[in-house]
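Hello,

I think I submitted the flavin mononucleotide job twice by accident. Can you confirm which output corresponds to this input? Input:
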Amino acid sequence: MATMPTDTAVGEDWDPLTPGSETEPTGAHRRLREEHPVAFTRRWGGFYTLSRYSDILAAAADPVTYSSAQKTTIPDTTGPSRPPRPPLETDPPRHGQFRTLLNKYFAPRRIRALEPAIRRIARDLVSAAATGRPVEAVAEITYAMPAQVLCTFLGIPASDGAHIKTMANEVLSAAHRGDTTAHKAANDRIYAYIDALVAQRRDAPQDPESDPVSGLLQARIDGRPLTTDEVSAVLRLLLQAGHGTTTNALGSAIRLLAERPDIQRRLRAEPHLIAPAIEELVRVWTPARLLARTTTRDVELHDRLIPAGSKIALMWSSANRDADAFDDPDTFDLDRRPNRHVGFGHGIHTCLGAPLARAELRIAIEELFAVTEWIEPAGTAEDAGWPHIGPSALPVRLLPRRRALDTASARDPRGEGLTATIQQIRPVADDVVELVLGRVDGADLPSWSAGAHVEIALPHGVSRPYSLCGDRSERDTWRVAVQRDPHSRGGSSYIHDTLRVGDALTVRGPRNHFPLAAAQRYVFLASGVGITPLLPMIRQVRDTGASWQLHYVGRVRERMAYADVLTRHPQTTLHVTAVDGRPDLAELLREVPTDTLVYACGSPEFLGAVEAATAHWPRGSLVVERFSPRPGADRPGADALEAFEVELARSGVTVPVVPGQSIIDACGLAGVTVPGSCFEGTCGSCETPVLSGVPDHRDSVLTAEERDRGELILPCVSRSRTPRLTLDA
Ligand code: FMN
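Support: Only one job matched these inputs. Its output is below.
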């Protein structure tokens, strides 16, 4: 080993926290690359910085010399007493073992499955912010969205997003300040949260193929289960790393759109450029400024000796602006090809969550374009400090699309909805409340048919469909019963926790995908809150004198809304599964005469069991209403095309639909907004007539006959089997 001086004079003045360089490090990085390619900083225990693209690539490709097994953040955010966070803070072969465990949760199929939920989160936040008045986009959109997506990813309530953000930010800020007491307290809070999550998932495991927490708890490495420390450390990585950088990238994206009308115009006109734009965005404003390694041996680089055991910052944000690697590196260039940036890292530790981050960014931009006519600055943006690169405050104006409202009202005279006030809220079971809605002036509400639902737009921007469950003869009120979803994405939890009598709500509809057809006999099958659309049906059938039976399934009676009223009728059988076990549906339905219509609503598992029990019945005997997508509904049918064209006959435009893009988004980007709400093919609000072409149906609303007829499509999820679809939109 050469005896090189380990002096720290060269680049000694490099301090990432000098006022300008902390928020806008471009100039400082350029100087480092040109003058001090191996620079030393005394702060935070001392570390060397590599700033040139080629050096960083070489270091990232050599995990033996540049180990990740020590802490990889600067300053260290895990704290002295905490275990390293696999797979980020492990070396081969352990790194590979952990990465293999986690890879499947970021695979394209899994990300595609999450897309409707991501889109709904984005649409809710963007719609609420798109008022035309100045809004602070970090507070209104970019801060919340990635944490809510992370919650969906981990199967935890979206309402925990804000808490996760606060805990993670406390860790960063305490580590940054070197405040060990606050750091320990912040760490303790985050680990207590993880412990509770792990305990909850041990008690109620979910599908390990789609739920990372259950997957980790059931996983084996070399035949042994993971230790509690290992599970917590992986979750800690996800909770800490899974949102902050995306918040920053999303902020930079909105800032770019607002400040660069030329780019906004071009992306709106050429949406296929959104994906390359994201790559360029991550290059120019690299949200993960750096990751650290520790040298396992003395290293000579650019006439300096870096001793074994030194902390090395791989400054991705600098590498991405290196003129030796990129022409005109400080310019955002939409046409930069190839774009070999290292914004998601490089080598074996390349960001595991990159596919999720890319999907989030793309969907957020698509939703911004779908909901707004234009995005413009409304004040001066502020840059966040170390370790972030991105805005901490971003005043913008999101001008809502006027055409969206026009198109909506053209399709549905009640597209904009009506204002209803909450006249009464009362519990009708554990975790189920009934809302009575009416107009302020007491006037009649639109009439409706049994099986119908309305879409309730909540004041915080979230809209959800709820079945009308009251009496149709009460013309001046509507009743809905809402069950609190333990994994609420912000709808039912808001209704339970925040709404009060007297609050005004926008309500759209009614709409009915579950109409009651005439028959001599009916069997109604409900599980849980799936009883709601059946209540008006039962009332109607009772009035007509037809024969009926109801089988109502629930875990415990206290959670079964309206059970007391229903059991007054001898036709009702309650199946309380905690007491009686699950009913044998095949047995229950065995004697049902062939002229009977069966109406079923409830959980996906329950409906799956009903469908299995009636699989041999003639088509049309079973009618189902789903509150969430049918499992497997998103699977492509035979002949499904990845890319195709949609002609919008009424609007006179033809839009390309690219792989992974929904028809509704492609239309939105072309300036034709088809009103949508759930974006997962369950609410039916985007239902559109098909004039020609063959749809590839992936919704959970249309019946088998409707699908076969091919006259309707739900463009939020469905696609095409022919190169062109013509829609009446
Ligand atoms: N959920 C209910 O609790 N009661 C209902 O009557 C009800 N009706 C629905 C009708 C339709 C057509 C659909 C698609 C869904 C219905 N849901 C109902 C589910 C809610 O819309 C929503 O998904 C649920 O409250 C969870 O939302 P959250 O995750 O935002 O809390």
